[in-house]
Structure formats: C-alpha cells, structure tokens
Recover the amino acids of this structure.
C-alpha cells in the first residue's frame, strides 16, 4: 500500500539535518503479512559518532534560544503531526501492525507530548534562596543537560519518541535517537516533520541498524550526558552498568507484570470493560498491560464468563482493515512466547475459556485468549507475556491478594476494582507500583507521571516531572556585593 504523504517515508540515516545512505541496509517487515515494506540504511559505530558530534555542535546554539522560541517550534512539530495524522497512522500500522484506529490514537497521544512539553519548557523555573551570608545572594537555575541518547521501542513507534525527544528538545537539549529496527519508518517520518517545523540541523539525529554498535557509541561517549530508554529490564540493567563509566543520567522505563484485582464488591461490568482496555490494547503489547488477573472467589465465575464472552467478540485481522480490533503480534518470537505461556498454563491445570492457539489467519496472529484456574506455578505468573492472553487467578482475602500482587521484581502499573472507600485507600497505598488504575483500566495520557518502581525503571516521563530529567540544577552564589549606597 502506498502512503498518503510519500515524503514522510524516508529510509536514510538522519544526521545533521541530512538524509544519508550507508553501505548496509536492513529489511523492515509488515507484521500482518511478513512481507518486506522497504529497506532502511543501517547505522553502526562510526555513523553514531557522527550523529553525536552533530548533536554536540547543535547544542551550543540550540540551548541559547529562548524557551519561548523552542516552545513555538516544538508546538509546531506537534501540530504538523496532527495535520499528517492519517499518513502517520497508516505508516505506523504497516510497520507495527496495530489497528488503524489505535494508530490514529497513538498519533494524537504522541503529538500531545510535544504540545505539553512545549508549554512546560516555558515554566522551567529556578529559585532564589534566602542568602546564608550578608552581602550575597543565592540563585538556582535549570539548564539543559546536553546531548541525549534516546532508545525507543517498537510497540509505540511515535509516542515513545515524542515522550523523550519532546521534553529534551523543548528544554534545550539535542538528541541522538535510536528507534527500534522493527519500526524505523515512523521515527523517520517524525524527523521530516521536525525539520518542517523548524527544528535546526543537528538538534534531532536518527540512527538505527546495528543496535549493539549504536549502543556502544552512545554509551562510550562522554558527550552524551543522558540516556533515556524504554524496553526490557535486562537491557535497562545493561545500560545502567555501561552508563556508570561516564556517569550519565538515566531514565529507564522497563518491563512490568501488572496485577488487576477484582474484589467481591466491584462493579463487574465495569471491571470487564477495564480488563479489555488494559489487557488487549495494542494486542497486549504494552508495558502496562495486565499480566495477572486476581478475581475474588465470590465473583470469579461471573467475571471470567463475562470476560471470555467479550474477548471472543474481538475481531482479529490486518490493522489496515477498519473492522479489526486486534492486529498481529510484532514477530514470530512474540507469537511463540504467547503460545508457550498458554501451553505451559494448560499443562499445569489452566482451562481455556476462549482462544488458546495461533489464529487461523496464520503468520503473527494469535487468538485473544482467556485462561481460568491460573496458579503461581505457571510461567505466565512470573514472566511478562506481551501478548493477548488473560490469565485469571483466584483469591479469597485482601491480605493474601496483596502479597501475591506484589510478589514480583517489577512494579510498573497495577489495577483494582472495588466500591469500598476504605479498601480503595488501603489497596492503592499497598500496591508496589508506580501507577495505579482504580476502577479504570486506561491510565495513560501526557499529563501523568509515567514510570515504575523496583526493576520497572528509574524516573518519570510525561507530566510536570518529565522535563526535570533533561535539566541540570545550577546553584550560583553572588558574593562580595556592596550594599552601601554610592557616595
Ligand atoms: C509502553 O508500553 O511503554 C507505553 C504505554 C503507554 O504509554 O501507555
């Protein structure tokens, strides 16, 4: 399928405002057909060093623009995304697979980070602190941290970029972006729009291809002062170790294993709706997707039956087909993992209420699945599935379910349904996660602090807190002031 705005479809490396070619190229596949969409030029160590140098040079002037000037350009970047919403959504669905309706929502979500951080950059206030000496004044200012290395995933190919590059560029930093090799075309389309919006050469650079070599160049460089990464906990830990050599600031948004608790006093229909939204968004390929459903004995039958009924109605198909509610998984490994979790659970006593196998469409399509009688001995209890499989566990008391919900190294998001006011406060405070959805399964937007505790990462993205990760605090003591009036 041809895309609406062909100028958005770029296959080069974007360094210092130019589209460059390299000797090697890699293939980008459509996960719905496993057919080649195009080939993209592959960056390695040397090209990444060039991109870092270009970002370093651009930083010297970009940081001197007023906050308002930077904000105007970043705001325009977001507006251009909305003007090109349909073309961006189609490109995104082609390379990532999500249903076109979800892709349109992602374009809006991604653009909202640009609007938000354009506004926030104008409010990067400092402080005047009461002086601790006579004849002196104490000032605190915030300054952009410098060159930022942003490493982004394939599951939200636009929004995860703007959630990092938006605050970085608005704050006065410059960026070397390494998007996922599964979805480089959406990233490149963003660069085309960034340039149109007036973002100067070198402020945003994009390299993808040889991930270990790109990573090595970013991590070894002492000019790169910050790394912002969204992806697996294993890679996040590796980056944290590598960052220690040059003491880079780190933002890590890593894996989760979200619990979703339905108490006996919950509104079951509302809980089923929330379960569908939080589990099956992006075919379950979301860091905050539910991984473990804990349902009270008294409502277990009702909830699981209603969930299975609703899930069996979800239409699976090519994301470009408007009637599809679920697209394919990103690749064969992802499909294999979902199926492994299902077969492991069945072999240990789980019952399939709906789905349970690869979809008859073949390729990367998997049936949306609901399993009952899940237990802690199953893989699905401890590993993030990142697929359309809802595993339902039983519980009988609050204390026990909280121990089980918190029994994981990760702590990104958690959800629960209850109508008991005191329980709502108790459980909200007891859940060891960075984000809680209470009687609601859709928690993401630009104005909230997105991030986790434990091994789910460091720092927060979005919200008024998100820009702080791209700023350094400078304290200045103005000493030796002469307060006697001139004669
Ligand atoms: C993610 O999966 O990492 C992001 C999901 C979101 O922003 O809602």
């Amino acid at each position: 399928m041809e895309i609406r705005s062909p100028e958005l479809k770029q296959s080069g490396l974007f360094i210092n405002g130019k589209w460059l070619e390299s000797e090697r190229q890699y293939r980008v596949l459509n996960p719905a057909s496993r057919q080649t969409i195009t080939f993209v030029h592959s960056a390695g160590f040397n090209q990444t060093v060039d991109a870092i140098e270009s970002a370093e040079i651009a930083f010297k002037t970009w940081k001197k623009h007023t906050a308002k000037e930077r904000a105007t350009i970043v705001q325009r970047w977001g507006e251009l995304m909305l003007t090109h919403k349909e073309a961006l959504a189609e490109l995104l669905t082609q390379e990532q697979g999500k249903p076109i309706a979800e892709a349109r929502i992602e374009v809006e979500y991604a653009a909202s980070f640009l609007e938000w951080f354009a506004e926030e950059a104008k409010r990067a206030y400092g402080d005047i602190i009461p002086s601790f000496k006579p004849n002196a004044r104490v000032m605190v200012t915030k300054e952009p941290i410098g060159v930022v290395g942003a490493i982004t995933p394939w599951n939200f190919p636009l929004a995860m970029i703007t959630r990092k590059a938006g605050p970085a560029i608005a704050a006065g930093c410059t960026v070397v972006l390494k998007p996922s090799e599964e979805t480089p075309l959406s990233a490149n389309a963003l660069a085309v729009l960034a340039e149109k919006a007036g973002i100067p050469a070198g402020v945003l650079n994009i390299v993808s291809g040889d991930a270990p070599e790109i990573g090595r160049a970013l991590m070894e460089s002492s000019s790169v002062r910050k790394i912002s990464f969204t992806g697996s906990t294993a890679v996040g830990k590796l980056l944290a170790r590598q960052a220690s050599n040059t003491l880079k600031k780190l933002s890590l948004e890593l894996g989760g294993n979200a619990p979703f608790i339905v108490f006996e006093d919950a509104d079951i229909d509302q809980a089923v709706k929330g379960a569908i939204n939080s589990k099956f968004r992006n075919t379950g390929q979301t860091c905050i997707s539910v991984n473990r459903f804990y349902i009270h004995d008294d409502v277990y039958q009702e909830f699981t039956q209603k969930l299975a009924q609703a899930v069996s109605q979800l239409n699976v198909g090519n994301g470009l087909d408007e009637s599809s509610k679920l697209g394919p998984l990103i690749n064969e490994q992802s499909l294999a993992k979902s199926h492994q979790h299902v077969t492991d659970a069945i072999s240990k006593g789980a019952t399939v209420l709906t789905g349970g196998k690869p979809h008859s469409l073949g390729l990367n399509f998997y049936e949306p699945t609901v399993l009952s009688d899940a237990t802690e001995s199953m893989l699905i209890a401890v590993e993030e599935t990142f697929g359309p499989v809802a595993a339902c566990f039983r519980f009988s008391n609050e204390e026990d379910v909280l121990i089980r919900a918190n029994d994981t190294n990760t702590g990104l998001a958690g959800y629960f349904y209850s109508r008991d006011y005191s329980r709502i406060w108790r459980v909200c405070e007891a859940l060891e996660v960075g984000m809680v959805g209470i009687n609601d399964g859709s928690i993401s937007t630009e104005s909230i602090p997105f991030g986790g505790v434990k091994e789910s990462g460091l720092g927060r993205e979005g919200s008024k807190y998100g820009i702080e990760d791209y700023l350094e605090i400078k304290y200045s003591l103005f000493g030796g002031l002469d307060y006697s009036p001139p004669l």
